[in-house]
């Protein structure tokens, strides 16, 4: 049997889905730890990014953070954090994933506030708004599309990275792939492919879901120009 | 990958230990060499594919969208899933790791090269045309050299992320320094081993980045003295 036939056989076995440690269990683990990580990332990155954007300082910090996390291997972070006070287990994995969620969230929150038309900001000030009011009532609403874009990038990245949690026995869909490799390719080829398909499918679904959400929260007049803005925000992350 | 307990009364589990590095220098250096060659080969192959792709995207505007979209999709697929797709066909070996890493590096290089080519001023292009350069001459003598900063940015980013990505190769036992890190994790969470692997990874990324930055300075003498 070639790997694709094995894949069909594996996916058609209901026990592979419903057994303890089967696809449904792993999917639940994967989604719950990704969600926790993205929320944690938002709690840290959004206030910081909005504030840095509001004061107009710290553009260097944003770039530095994204470059640093780019060069630290995921695997290293996943294995180092359990050695700290976090201990071995789910919290360490969630924190490690949250670290990878921070750069896109931070960069987009920062860019979102910075791109607000200075005239708008000055008009708000001229109306007698305080700094906090400008941030809350003017800059934050205008930055929402960027926040959504950052959220989408972060969510996709975390879902993708969560597959690696299997190396520290953190659960998630990656387990299916790793156990497949454990069986050797000749035996587990179908399972490996199935795991890959599930992980990739989940990542793509998350991407599509949050692309839709991003569209929903973007006011209609801004939608046209958002394509360019999204690309700019993405470029801010890849550094071009 | 074994480690020798030191003969102190309490071996403990320090964050870093020269004792470990000395006792295991063979393994660690082999892993470092493995990691370096994998990274260098991957970035070279990726550049050989990505730069022509970017030129195609630059020459034929309608293809720019599809080419960027295709590399973007490859980038969205999680790395472990890419290993899962490729390993059943290429087997457990260097070829699989290389293909995964190359596919990932493509996006960054293509995008930055296209951006670099697009930054070539129209006047320059017209001047080159007026001097009688054909499409190829213009590309090789004028446009690519002027796009070099963009290409190098892409190469540097690709190199740094490749160094990190190679560690995922542990899933098929070819992770370079990832093997050191992972073995440390399995050796009862031996911190010194994990930290050694991690530090070497970050250092390798830093050194390769600096080398590329130096090469970039040598290749673009006209930018020297300018900021940025």
UniProtKB/TrEMBL annotation, chain A:
Transmembrane segments: 31-52, 64-86, 92-111, 146-168, 180-213
Compartments, as annotated in UniProt: Cell membrane; Membrane
Membrane topology term: Multi-pass membrane protein
CDD domains: TM_PBP2 (cd06261)
Pfam families membership: BPD_transp_1
Sequence ranges assigned to domain ABC transmembrane type-1 in this UniProt record: 27-210
Keyword Membrane attributed: yes
UniProt keywords, alphabetically: Membrane, Transmembrane, Transmembrane helix, Transport
Family assignment from sequence similarity: Belongs to the binding-protein-dependent transport system permease family.
UniProt name for this protein: ABC transporter permease
TrEMBL record, chain B:
InterPro entries: ABC_transp_perm/SBD, MetI-like, MetI-like_sf
Annotated PANTHER family: GLYCINE BETAINE/L-PROLINE TRANSPORT SYSTEM PERMEASE PROTEIN PROW, OSMOPROTECTANT IMPORT PERMEASE PROTEIN OSMW
Major subcellular location class: membrane
SUPFAM superfamilies, A to Z: MetI-like
Domain ABC transmembrane type-1: from-to ranges: 32-212
Family: Belongs to the binding-protein-dependent transport system permease family.
TM region(s), chain numbering: 38-60, 67-86, 92-110, 192-216
Superkingdom assignment: Bacteria
Record's protein name: Quaternary ammonium transporter
Compartment(s): Cell membrane; Membrane
Biological process annotations from GO: glycine betaine transport; transmembrane transport
Single GO cellular component term: plasma membrane
Keywords: Membrane, Transmembrane, Transmembrane helix, Transport
Pfam families linked to this entry: BPD_transp_1
Topology of this chain in the membrane: Multi-pass membrane protein
